[in-house]
Amino acid sequence: MDMLSLSTTELRHRIGTKEISPVELLEAAVTRIIALNPAVNSITATDLPEARRVAQAAEAAALRGEELGLLHGLPTGIKDLHETRGLLTTYGSPLYGEHVPEQDAAMVARVRAEGAVILAKTNVPEFGAGANSRNPVWGATGNPFNPMLNPGGSSGGSAVALACEMLPVCTGSDTGGSLRIPAAICGVVGFRPSPGLVPMDTRPHGWTPISVIGPMGRNVADTRLLFAAQVGMDDREPLGFPIDRTAAMTSQPVDLARLRVAWTEDFGQCPVGAEIRTAMREKIAAMSHLFKSCDRLDLDMGEADRCFDVVRAQAFVARYQHAYETDPASLGPNIRANYEIGANMTLADSAWANSEQTRLFRRFQTVYRDYDLILSPTVPVTPFPWTQLYLAELEGTQLRNYYHWLALTYFVTLVTNPAISLPCGTDPMGMPFGMQITGRFRGDLALLDASAALESAWSRIQGLARPRPDLAKLATPRPELAAFATHRSVHPQARPLV
Fold first, then answer.
1. Do 42 and 165 sit in the same domain of this protein?
2. No. of H helices and E strands in the chain?
C-alpha cells in the first residue's frame, strides 16, 4: 500500500484505528522527499531526529488509546515564513540564513498541539514577495508538472510538496494570492479564509486585513481538516472572531441546483490572457447546468489596483524600514520595490486607500443579494519559466508593476471575502487550471461546503477533474534549481535528508 497516496483525512482515520503507524508514515514521507525533492526543490530545512521522536510518541499514544488531535501523527511541512520552535526559519532571506526561533508562531503552535509531526519547512520567495518560490537561501522550486516552470507563490513549496505527495499536511499564507495562486498552478486546493480566523501574530499592522494564514490540501476535505486545526481565538490577533471548529471540519451537503452563480473573466479590469479567457468560458459552459443560474457578471472595482499598491506598501514600510535604511542591498528586488513605493507615499495616499477599500468592500457585497458565489480564473496565464521573476507584460501590454499580473486574486483580497482555488481540469497548455470561488463576507463554512460539492461534481465532468502530476517523471534531479541559491546556510538542518 502506498500510504502517501491516501487522502489526509483517510490517513488520520487509519492512524486512529491503528491501521497505520505514524512512524512508518513518517519514513514513507522521508523516502518520497529523498526521491523527488531533487527534481522540484520544495522542501528546505528539516529536523528528522526530532520528527522521529515525535512520531514515536504519536504511535505510542495511539496504541494506548489516548484522545488524539486532528492532525495526530501526520508528517507536516510549515511554510518558511512561519516561525517554528527549534527549526531553521529563514523567510528565504540571507539575513535569516541561520535563524532558529525559540518559539512557534501562533498558528504553528496550534498545528503542533493537534498532533502534527513537523518535519520540514517549505520554500518561498524572499520574505514572501512575489508569486514565485525562489530565493538566495534555498534556490528555486519547480512546478510538479514541469520543474522548469514556475510553481507560483509565495506558498509554492507547500503546494508542490502536496502535489508530489511528499507530505499530507502543508501550511500557507496569503496576501495578494499566495495560497490561491500556487494551488492553482500545481493542481491542489488553497483556501484564503476571512481575516482573523487563523491567528497571525506576526502581522505588523494588526488591524489591516490583507494578510491571512490558511490551509492547503489535495482536496477540500483535507484542506478543511487543516483549517479546523488552525482556527481559534488568540489575544494577539485583533481581527479574530470565533468559529465552530467541528463545523469547520465537517462538510454539510449542498444542492448545487439551488445555487445562483455569477462568473467573470477579469473582474472588469484584471489583465488576463486570451487562452485563459477561452478556457474559462469553456469550463463555465461545461458546468453551468449544475446551477440554478449561472450569469456573466459586470463589476465595478473602482481603483482597486492603486488601492492595493498603497495598502500593500504600508505593510512593507512597517516591516522593512530598518533593513532598507541600514543595508538596502541585503533585500531582494521585490522587497526594495515594495518599500520604495511605500516610502514615497503620503498620509493623503493612505487615507484615500483606506476609503477606497471601504467603498470597494461595500459595493462588492451587494453582488451577494442576487448570487451565492462568484467564479473567476485564479491566474491569468499558463505557468512561465521559473527563471522569469514575474510577468512584465501580457499580450504586448506593459503591466503596472511586478505583481500586477496577480490582480485576479488581490482584488478579492481587498474586499476580504473568503476565497478558494479549486483544481478544474487543465489550461490549453495542459497545465492545471485553478478556479477561484469567492463566497459571502465571513461565509467561510458555506464556501467550503459548496466547494466540496463542486469538487465532487467536477470529478464526473470531462475536462474539469483535478489533474495529477506524473511522479515517475520527477525521478531526474534538477540541480539548477538548488544552484540558484547564492547564500549557503551552514546550519545542520539545511542539509538534505539522508
1. yes
2. 15, 15
Query: Could you tell me if 413 and 437 are in contact, meaning their C-beta atoms sit under 8 angstroms apart?
Result: no
Check: CB of residue 363 under 8 Å from CB of residue 410: no
What CATH number does the domain containing 148 carry? Answer: 3.90.1300.10
Cα–Cα distances in Å, from 449 out to 1, 83, 369?
A: 30, 31, 19
How far is 53 from 49, CA to CA, in rounded Å?
6
3-state DSSP percent of the chain in helix, strand and coil, to 5: 45, 15, 45
Instruction: Establish whether 154 is a catalytic residue.
Output: yes
Cβ–Cβ < 8 Å for 176, 308: yes
Annotated active-site residue in 21, 42, 133, 154: 154
Nearest to 414 by CA among 302, 304, 271, 315: 304
- 3-state secondary structure (DSSP) of residue 53: helix
Indicate the pTM of the whole model: 0.97
Q: Is residue 29 part of a domain?
A: yes
Distance, in Å, from the CA atom of 459 to the CA atom of 65, rounded to the nearest integer, reads 37
Residue 464 is assigned to a structural domain of this protein: no
pLDDT-based confidence at residue 329 (cuts at 50, 70, 90): confident
**Grid cell at residue 297:** 457578471
Query: Which residue among 42, 158, 178, 194 is the active-site one?
Result: 178
The cell numbers describing 180, all together, are 490561491
Question: Does 178 qualify as catalytic in the annotation?
Answer: yes
Q: Which of 21, 79, 93, 211 is catalytic?
A: 79
Q: Give residue 315's pLDDT.
A: 86
Digit-coded pLDDT (tens) for 282-303? 999 999 999 999 999 999 999 9
Cα separation, 84 vs 96, whole angstroms: 13
pLDDT digits (tens, 9 = 90+) for 226-241: 999 999 999 999 999 9
